[in-house]
Design goal:
The chain has helices at 14-20, 25-38, 57-60, 74-84, 120-130, 147-154, 183-193, 209-215, 217-230, and strands at 43-49, 64-71, 89-92, 105-110, 131-142, 168-169, 179-180, 196-203, 239-245. It is α/β, with parallel strands linked by helices. Bound molecules: S-adenosylmethionine (SAM). S-adenosylmethionine is lined by residues 5, 7, 9, 14, 50-52, 55-56, 71-73, 76, 94-95, 111-113, 116.
Length: 249
Amino acid sequence: MSEKIVSDYNGYDYKKIFWEDADREYEDQADRMAIRKLLPKRMEKFADIGGGYGRLANEYLKRARKVVIFDYSKSELKQAKEIYGDKIDTKAGDIYKLPFKDGELDGLMMVRVTHHLKHLDKAVAELYRVLKPGGVAVIEVANKRTLPKIVRFITRRSKVNPFDKKVANYKEISKDGFYNYHPKYVEEIFDKVGFKRERVLSVSNFRSKGLKKVFGTKNLVKMENKAQKLLAPIRFAPSIYYKLRKPEK
Ligand SMILES: C[S@@+](CC[C@H](N)C(=O)[O-])C[C@H]1O[C@@H](n2cnc3c(N)ncnc32)[C@H](O)[C@@H]1O
């Protein structure tokens, strides 16, 4: 089936604009910390789905024999190739129709992509298809039920009800769509497709300009390390990470 690409990164310098020119060291460290805790130590063939320019490649290159960075944006993939050369393969395409065979991968991750996906259920079904039985998927989900969003709703500064399981589409952030998901909704999708949920982490718990100013990035990163597991049961952070396994037949 063909799906509209909700966000086209071709020609957008994501590396420079979003990461290098912005104060996001804390967010970057928080992602890396979670990935280190969740990814298997040894994998044969691994794909970073919506991997962009390979920001997080150093977290999986040492764990997998063969690495593919998959993305819709050819300019992101070109940049990835310039940075990592022969250490990676790149593949371009659409998440809704992944160019991998059934069971081709024994590991994959998808980080900071769900906010671009209108049909998360279809994307998750594709991720499940391309994993071999016993394989692991690490998926980061943009959470709609965060503490700041709860406060904004209660004080009537936002009409989006964070407790409602339905998908939130913040058109004010991107006119094409910017999606946030309720943890329960997402977990039902994972369960329905057949994934076993092995671990959950609460990530980027202190994503706030004010907190960065008061505590400094270094201290926030230390606090984050403890909070990822501690706060996982309440699922109030902007990023929720899931370690999912496709059951053996
Ligand atoms: C916010 S970036 C995240 C990149 C990387 N995962 C990271 O965390 O740095 C989102 C990426 O998803 C890709 N993307 C969005 N929708 C896609 C789709 N339908 N198919 C393939 N890639 C897609 C974009 O091209 C972009 O590179």
